[in-house]
Amino acid sequence: MSVNAANGDDVPRRLDVTPRLSRTYERYVLGYPRAVLCVLFLVLAFFSYHSQDFQLDASADSLLLEDDADLKLFREVHERYPSNDRLFVTFTPEEDLFSDESLEGLKRLREELKTIPSVESIVTILDIPLLKSSDIPLTEMANNIQTLEEPTVDKSRAKEEILHSPVYRDLILSADGGTTALLLNLKENLRYKSLRKARNELRAKRRATGLSDIDRENLKRHSAAYDEAHAALNERRHQDIEKIRSIMRSYEEFGVLHLGGVSMIADDMMTFIRNDLVVFGLGVLVFLIVVLTLIFGEVRWIALPLLSCFYAGLLMIGMLGLIGWKVTIISSNFLALMLIITISMNIHLIVRYKQLCRDYPSNTQLDLVATTAKKMARPCFYTTLTTIMGFSSLAVSDIKPVIDFAWMMSAGLLVTFLTSFLLFPTILVLIGKSTSGTTRGREFLLTGHLAYITERHGKKVLALSILLAIASVVGISKLEVENSFINYFSEETEIFQGMKLIDEKLGGTTPLEVILNLEEQSESEKPAEGAETVEQDKDLLELEASYALESADSAEYWFTPYKIDRIKEAHDYLDSLPEVGKVLSLASIVRVAEDLNEGKEFDSLELSLLYSRVPDEIKASMIDPFISIDHNEARIILRILDSREDLRRKEFLEQVKRDFTDKLNFEEKDVTITGLLVLYNNMLQSLFKSQISTLSVVMVGIAAMFLVLFRSVVLSVIGIVPNVLGAVVVLGIMGWMEIPLDMMTITIAAITIGIAVDNGIHYIYRFREEFAKNGDYIETLYLCHSNIGKAVLYTTMTIIFGFSILILSNFTPTMYFGVFTALAMFIALLAALTLLPKLILLWRPFG
């Protein structure tokens, strides 16, 4: 009996390899392999040159929603209230913080940090003015400000003063007095700020009304200049942070130090992205070598797929550099995913080629390669399209890094497909037939067992699938989006440790701002002539009346008891909320002055005189950040305790808005809530919407692909259901385990369906082909499990272990993404080799 007959294949021994659709490919690609390789090499050289422009991005812009109205408001507010970038160095000494040894170490640390060129100023407990900690009269302090460095200051009294200070408690000194913070104010980069503003304004205009040709050219020019300035600033900040950490390490003998701040987080995230690219790439590479060795055990079947991976990966990196796409913490795994998918497609080609070598040993290498390409081109093309559909469905998300990841991977998949059907076959033609090409290689019995289970226990498979689906739906109903930004990082990282310490001991981490519009007072509310007590002398009354008349339109006149009281009322309300840490406002400064005034509140004249006599440098640092006289508004800055387990950001923000109108009697239009908490909450709340929209798009898109490919509604359902099961079960597990959705985990379902559906396409495509030859469903079941089933097993296990490499990331969402996507792929694999064939046996769609 011939090999063909033994496999149930009744086609002639000699294959017809020149069908019309493949003739051009065979003639011009496989017919001139050296010329094709030269062209491919030139293409690679071109894109390799542009790999030097490959960029990473860990800025706040990479984690924001597209077209977020609150983002526009946030930027407008910060135009009115500019503030320098700031870093925090926390210091928890082994001894008492206020001991001479600890303060001496703190002083030396401060002086060394001042030597860093980018540091404009530093505020520590050694620098803040102490007004009640010495016996020097207040009248003498104007030219003799007392600080902890002065020998006349009593340290125990200073500690109590700082701990009760409305300004400095929980800002630079913890409530237990054991931890302090050094506030490093960094110099402002005016050019970078100007370019960012110009770019953002043009982007906003493009979204609102569109751009003229001149505007488009300006946007292009400003964006390029901004990217250049941003890269330079990032490099400067990286050098500063490295220097700060170097200085901090030399002071570890005094206690525990941590670095915090937005710039530090962004810089560390850049480091994470670089490390993830290297670790994922090398990890996947080593793993693939092991897997290919175990599966095929031949050098060519190890070298060829790895060469394809190298080509596709380097080409994609160069393409990203040429286009200007930046890799974020979300898309940092693109290289690992490309390698995994490239290997998977190559494995399908190898398995089919080796089968043809066994079935038709007398055919030439050109015949075998051409037939392999012909047989695999259509299913691989559709699997590429379905996988692209899975990734591109993420583009309907409102989350910018997820959108970038979607398009990046979609382009990468096209590169993978073209590489697999150009580079792989041409090299294979040149190296000739393998001497072991007719052997069957290693045998894996799992697929045979799964075929037996499908035939003998198919009803149990159906029942178990239904139960899993029901339990998963219940679990999905429990999914939440609340997630602390701190928990995005491993506990061993300094980001986590620093943010945790600041959150718990130094007033919270996530900023929130409340802007109060303080309407002009009525005439009855304005200070009138003679409105003070009768005890005031006549000269003072005349001075007050004259001053009120002359300065009615001046900045000093803005300060009235009414406005101060409203600010205090709002400040105290926010300070009373359990989710809120440190609160700062004009009320904090006024209360310091009132404390010095023996607790007495100031009237309008006193407030105006006080403001007029404050030095400009103090106004700039202590008053201007909290009021805008031109806009008649006050700003309250607060920080949220992000690590609170019961924090519900959406409910918290809604409560604050409601209480300002219901309890504090503000008009809704007079209260604006903005800040990073609002932007972060918007992103979290968009996760549910994004999850639903991405799933809907990928389901509709893949259903359309199946209809085009198989022209059968029944086969479309059969192909989709098993793969959807894997995604649904994983989401259900996350719900049951109370693991919230985040920027990465919302992509699991769409990506799993997009990749896992490849198994269904390959299996159904081969089942239909083999069934046409023997006409027996059971025989075809076992036959398909012995050939395409093994290819599906190999490729899916490769994908599973490839995704598992992501657990090495320091970014927790990436770890979850890797683990749960691998689990979803495993479930989809089992479903593809049990549930899918059982549905075929049940519905018999081939007649």
Overview of this protein structure:
The protein is of the alpha+beta class and 847 residues long. It has 3 domains: 3-60 and 266-435 and 442-482 and 682-843, Multidrug efflux transporter AcrB transmembrane fold (Up-down Bundle); 67-128 and 165-260, no CATH class; 510-640, no CATH class. 62% of the residues lie in helices and 7% in strands. It has 29 helices and 11 strands. It has helices spanning 3-6, 20-30, 33-49, 69-80, 100-113, 155-163, 190-208, 213-249, 262-295, 299-323, 334-359, 365-392, 400-431, 446-456, 458-476, 494-505, 538-550, 561-575, 586-596, 604-613, 616-623, 649-662, 676-710, 713-736, 748-774, 777-786, 788-804, 812-833, 835-843, and strands spanning 55-56, 86-93, 119-123, 180-186, 255-260, 326-327, 510-517, 580-584, 627-628, 633-640, 671-674. The strands form 3 sheets. Strands 7, 8, 9, 10 and 11 form a 5-stranded antiparallel β-sheet that branches. A 4-stranded antiparallel β-sheet has the order 3-4-2-5. Strands 1-6 form a two-stranded parallel sheet. Helix 23 runs parallel beside helix 25. The two termini are 29 Å apart. The model is unreliable at 1-18, 437-441, 521-537 and 543-553 (pLDDT under 50).
